[in-house]
């Protein structure tokens, strides 16, 4: 069976991938039938020939999940650099942020109450 998948290139800690068509029994970095593009997660660059990918899927090639995501992004015009991911916040950091927000809200309430009391005091003196 033929698959469209990633072939790893680059050095240690600086991985780069080629999008290739290979027999599924061949090794990850083995000889490819055809190269369709590349994907660099470090620089957030991805390029793929959609016409050839469509040809191979039409012939019966199975597409890996990652390559399918790359194809979908390319078809929708989404650039990988523009994608914003929410930061992963630990439970401890989330609890700390919630406590700080609560303390800030409480301080704002007290300031508003003090301002209202200060505003009401001159009016009370004026009436007396």
Average pLDDT level: 89
As a whole number of angstroms, the C-alpha radius of gyration is 29 Å
- What is the overall silhouette? rod-shaped
Oligomeric grouping of the chains: single chain
Distance between the termini: 95 Å
User: What proportion strand?
Assistant: 25-35%
Q: Fraction of residues in helices?
A: 40-55%
Describe the structure.
The protein is an alpha+beta fold and 128 residues long. Helix content is 46%, strand content 26%. The protein contains three helices and five strands, in the order ββββαβαα.
Characteristic key phrases:
128 residues, 5-stranded mixed beta sheet, alpha+beta, 26% strand
Which helices and strands, and how do they pair?
Blueprint: E1 2-11, E2 14-23, E3 34-40, E4 45-48, H1 50-59, E5 62-63, H2 65-76, H3 91-127
Summary, kept brief:
This protein is an alpha+beta fold.
């Amino acid at each position: 069976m033929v698959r469209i998948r990633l072939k790893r290139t680059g050095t240690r800690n600086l991985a780069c991938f080629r999008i290739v068509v290979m027999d599924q029994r061949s090794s990850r970095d083995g000889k490819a039938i055809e190269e369709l593009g590349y994907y660099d997660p470090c620089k957030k660059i991805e390029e793929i020939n959609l016409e050839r990918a469509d040809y191979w899927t039409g012939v019966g090639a199975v597409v890996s999940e990652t390559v399918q995501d790359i194809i979908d992004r390319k078809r929708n015009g989404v650039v990988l650099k523009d994608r914003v991911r929410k930061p992963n916040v630990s439970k401890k950091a989330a609890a700390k942020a919630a406590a700080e927000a609560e303390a800030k809200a409480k301080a704002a309430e007290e300031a508003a109450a003090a301002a209202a009391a200060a505003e009401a005091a001159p009016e009370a003196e004026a009436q007396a």
